[in-house]
C-alpha cells in the first residue's frame, strides 16, 4: 500500500464507505459498521497528522491521548473476543489469530504516539513524531482488518443462534402436526410458544441490524407471516382435533403449517445467504425501475453519444411498454384510464423515435457531444416517460384506495360468518365466490402497486401483501365451510374469526403501504417517521430478566466499550466548531446528559423540567414550532411524574435495583432525545443532533 496521506485516509474510511475490506470480509450489519466508525475516525486523525511532523505540546498531547485510547479500547475489546473464542471451538483458531493481530496493531499505534519516544527538534525544540510513516499506515491497516474480522466472526455466533432456534421450532412444529389429543397439544403448544418468542427476539434484532434494505424488508415479511400464523395454527389445530374427519378443517390446518415452514426457511435463507430456489427469486421487473433505467440511459447521451446503441434504446422502451399491459389488460381498468395509458405509451414511442433520428444524425457527423436537436429530443423523451409513470401511479393508487373503501365494510366476511353459523352451505358457497373475486382484485392491485412502489423494500412489501391475500382468501373459505358443517362448534367459529381478523389486518397494512408509496412518489419520506416508529416500539419494550452474559451479549458490551472510548474525543473536537448560541445549547444538552449519568433517579426527575425549560428557551422558534415543542414537553413532564412514582417503589436484590435504575434513566433520556431530535430535524441543524446522539449513548448505556 502507498504511504501517502491520501491513500492512508482512503484506507481508513473504506470499511464504512464501501463495506468491503482488504481482508475479504464484507460488513453486512449496522452494529459492526457503527462499531468501526469511531475507530476509523481516530485512526484517520492519527494518519492525517503524520504529514506535519513538528507538533505543539497541545497537539502532541491530543495525539498521545488518541493513540493510548485506541490501544486501551482495543485491548479490552480483544479480551472479550478471546473469551468468545474459548467458548466456541469452531471459531477458536480464526478468532485467536484476529485478536492477536488486533492487540499487536494497537500496541504499535500506542508506541508510535508515545510522547516518550518522540524526538525534540534541534531547530525550535518542538517534538517530532511519526518519523516512520509506513509503520503507522501498516499498523492502521492491520488494526482495522483484524477488528473487523473479530466482529464478523462474532456475528457468526448470532447466525448460529438463529439457526439453532429455528431448528427447535421446526422439531416442535412437527410434533404439533402429529398430535392426536388435546392434552398433548396443549403441552407441546406451550413449548412451541416459548420457542417462537425466542426466535422472534433473535430475528427481530437481526432485522434491525441488517444494512441491506431488501433483506430487511424480506425479513420483516417473513416475521409478519410467523406472527400471524401462530394464532392461526392454534385455532386451526384445535378445530382439526375437535373434528378429525372434516376435510375442510384438515385443508385449513395443512395450509397454515406449510406457510409457517416456508417463512422459517426464508428467515434462514436471509441470515445465511443460502442460494435456494426461494431465496434468489428475482423480483418481477417493475415499471418504475424500467422508467428509471430508461431515463438514465437517455440522459447519459449528453455525456457520451456512444454509450449505447439506438436499437437497444428502442428495445428498452418496448419492454417498458409491454409491462404496462398489466394495467391495460386488467378487467378492472376503466376505458378512460386504458386510453390515457395507451396514448402516453404512443407519445413516448414518438419522442424516442425523434431522439433516435437526431442521435443518428449527430453520430453521422462525428459529433462529440449532444446537438441542439438531441437536447430537445432528450427533454421531450424524459418528460413523456415521466408522464407515463405519473398516470400509472394515479391508476394504481386510485384503484387501491377505492378497493380499501369498499372492503372496509367487510360485507362478504360478515355474510360468511353468518352463513357458517347457520349451517347454510349454499350461502357459504355464494359468499365464497364474492370473497374470491375480491381476493383477485386485491392480488392484482398489489401487483400494480409493485410496479409504481418506487423502492425495492416497498416492492417486497407489495409482493408480501399479494401473497398474503392469495393464501388467506382460500383459508377463510375452508374455515367457513368447516363452521357450516359444524355450526354449533365454538372452536370452528373461533377459527373463522381468526382468519377474518388476519384478512382485516392485511387490509390495514395495505392502507399503510399505500401511504408509503404516495410519500415516496411525492418525496415526503423523511426521518420523523423513523422517530415515530422508535417511540412507538420503545413503549412496548419489556424488561429483560437478569442473566449471565452469553457470547453475543459479551460481544455487544465489547462494542459499546470500544465506541465509548473512541467517541469521547470526537465530541470535544466537534464542539469547538459551533457558534455562540449553539455552544450554549450544547452546554445545556451536555448538562442534561451528565445529570442522567451521575445523579440519582429522584434527582434526575426533579431537575429535568426546569433544566429543559432553560434549554428550550435558547431556541428561536416560530409559533407553530412552539406549539409542537410544548406538546412534547407536556408528554415528557407527565412521564417524569410517572417515573417519580416508580422510583419510590421498593425493590429487592442488586439485579432488580440495577434494572430499575437503568430503565428509568433510559426512558427519560430517550424521551429527551426524541424531543430534541424532532426539533433539530425541523431546523436541519445536524451537528447538534449528532451531539445529542452521542450524549444518549453515554447516558443511556
TrEMBL record:
Keywords: Cytoplasm, Membrane, Transmembrane, Transmembrane helix. GO terms for biological process: cell adhesion; Rho protein signal transduction. Its main location: cytoplasm. The chain crosses the membrane at residues 663-681. GO terms for cellular component: cytoplasm. It is found in: Cytoplasm. GO terms for molecular function: actin filament binding; cadherin binding. It holds the Pfam family Vinculin. It comes from the Eukaryota. SUPFAM superfamilies: alpha-catenin/vinculin-like (SSF47220). Belongs to the vinculin/alpha-catenin family. This is Alpha-catulin. The lineage of its organism: Eukaryota, Metazoa, Chordata, Craniata, Vertebrata.
Amino acid at each position: 500500500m502507498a504511504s501517502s496521506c491520501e491513500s492512508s485516509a482512503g484506507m481508513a474510511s473504506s470499511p464504512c464507505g464501501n463495506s468491503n475490506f482488504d481482508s475479504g470480509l464484507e460488513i453486512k450489519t449496522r452494529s459492526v459498521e457503527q462499531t468501526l466508525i469511531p475507530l476509523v475516525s481516530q485512526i484517520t486523525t492519527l494518519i492525517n497528522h503524520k504529514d506535519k511532523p513538528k507538533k505543539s505540546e497541545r497537539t502532541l498531547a491530543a495525539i498521545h491521548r488518541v493513540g493510548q485510547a485506541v490501544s486501551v479500547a482495543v485491548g479490552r475489546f480483544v479480551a472479550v473476543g478471546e473469551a468468545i473464542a474459548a467458548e466456541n471451538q469452531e471459531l477458536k483458531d480464526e478468532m485467536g489469530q484476529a485478536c492477536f493481530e488486533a492487540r499487536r496493531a494497537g500496541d504499535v499505534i500506542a508506541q508510535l504516539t508515545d510522547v516518550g519516544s518522540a524526538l525534540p527538534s534541534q531547530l525550535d525544540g518542538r517534538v517530532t513524531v511519526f518519523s516512520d510513516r509506513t509503520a503507522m499506515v501498516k499498523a492502521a491497516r492491520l488494526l482495522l482488518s483484524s477488528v473487523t474480522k473479530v466482529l464478523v466472526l462474532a456475528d457468526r455466533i448470532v447466525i448460529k443462534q438463529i439457526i439453532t432456534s429455528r431448528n427447535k421450532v421446526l422439531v416442535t412444529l412437527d410434533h404439533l402436526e402429529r398430535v392426536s389429543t388435546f392434552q398433548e397439544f396443549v403441552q407441546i403448544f406451550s413449548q412451541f410458544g416459548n420457542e417462537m418468542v425466542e426466535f422472534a427476539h433473535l430475528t427481530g434484532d437481526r432485522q434491525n441490524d441488517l444494512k441491506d434494505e431488501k433483506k430487511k424488508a424480506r425479513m420483516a415479511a417473513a416475521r409478519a407471516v410467523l406472527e400471524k400464523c401462530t394464532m392461526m395454527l392454534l385455532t386451526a389445530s384445535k378445530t382439526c382435533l375437535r373434528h378429525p374427519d372434516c376435510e375442510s378443517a384438515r385443508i385449513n390446518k395443512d395450509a397454515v403449517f406449510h406457510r409457517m415452514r416456508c417463512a422459517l426457511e426464508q428467515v434462514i435463507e436471509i441470515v445465511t445467504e443460502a442460494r435456494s430456489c426461494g431465496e434468489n427469486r428475482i423480483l418481477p421487473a417493475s415499471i418504475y425501475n424500467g422508467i428509471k433505467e430508461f431515463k438514465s440511459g437517455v440522459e447519459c447521451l449528453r455525456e457520451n453519444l456512444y454509450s449505447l446503441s439506438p436499437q437497444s434504446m428502442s428495445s428498452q422502451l418496448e419492454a417498458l411498454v409491454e409491462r404496462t399491459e398489466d394495467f391495460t389488460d386488467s378487467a378492472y381498468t376503466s376505458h378512460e384510464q386504458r386510453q390515457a395509458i395507451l396514448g402516453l405509451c404512443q407519445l413516448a414511442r414518438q419522442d424516442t423515435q425523434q431522439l433516435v433520428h437526431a442521435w443518428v444524425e449527430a453520430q453521422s457527423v462525428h459529433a462529440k457531444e449532444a446537438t441542439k436537436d438531441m437536447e430537445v429530443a432528450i427533454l421531450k423523451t424524459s418528460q413523456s416517460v415521466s408522464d407515463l409513470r405519473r398516470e400509472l401511479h394515479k391508476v394504481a393508487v386510485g384503484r387501491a384506495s377505492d378497493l380499501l373503501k369498499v372492503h372496509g365494510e367487510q360485507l362478504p366476511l360478515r355474510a360468511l360468518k353468518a352463513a357458517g353459523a347457520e349451517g347454510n352451505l349454499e350461502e357459504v358457497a355464494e359468499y365464497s365466490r364474492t370473497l374470491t373475486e375480491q381476493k383477485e382484485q386485491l392480488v392484482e392491485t398489489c401487483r400494480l402497486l409493485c410496479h409504481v412502489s418506487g423502492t425495492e423494500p416497498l416492492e417486497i412489501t407489495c409482493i408480501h401483501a399479494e401473497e398474503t391475500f392469495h393464501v388467506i382468501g382460500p383459508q377463510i373459505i375452508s374455515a367457513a365451510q368447516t363452521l357450516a358443517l359444524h355450526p354449533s362448534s365454538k372452536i370452528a367459529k373461533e377459527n373463522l374469526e381468526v382468519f377474518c381478523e388476519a384478512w382485516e389486518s392485511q387490509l390495514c397494512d395495505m392502507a399503510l403501504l399505500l401511504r408509503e408509496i404516495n410519500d415516496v412518489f411525492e418525496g415526503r419520506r423523511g426521518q420523523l417517521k423513523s422517530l415515530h416508529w422508535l417511540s412507538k416500539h420503545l413503549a412496548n419494550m419489556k424488561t429483560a430478566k437478569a442473566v449471565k452474559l452469553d457470547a453475543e451479549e459479551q460481544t455487544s458490551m465489547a462494542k459499546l466499550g470500544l465506541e465509548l472510548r473512541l467517541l469521547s474525543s470526537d465530541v470535544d473536537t466537534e464542539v469547538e466548531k459551533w457558534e455562540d448560541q449553539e455552544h450554549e445549547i450544547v452546554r445545556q444538552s451536555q448538562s442534561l446528559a451528565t445529570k442522567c449519568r451521575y445523579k440519582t433517579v429522584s434527582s434526575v426527575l426533579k431537575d429535568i423540567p426546569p433544566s429543559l425549560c432553560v434549554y428550550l428557551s435558547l431556541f428561536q422558534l416560530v409559533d407553530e414550532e412552539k406549539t409542537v415543542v410544548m406538546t412534547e414537553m407536556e408528554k415528557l413532564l407527565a412521564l417524569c411524574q410517572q417515573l417519580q412514582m416508580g422510583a419510590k417503589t421498593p425493590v429487592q436484590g442488586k439485579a432488580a435495583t440495577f434494572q430499575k435504575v437503568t430503565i428509568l434513566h433510559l426512558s427519560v433520556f430517550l424521551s429527551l432525545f426524541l424531543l430534541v431530535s424532532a426539533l433539530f430535524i425541523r431546523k436541519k441543524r445536524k451537528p447538534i443532533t449528532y451531539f445529542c446522539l452521542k450524549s444518549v449513548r453515554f447516558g443511556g448505556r
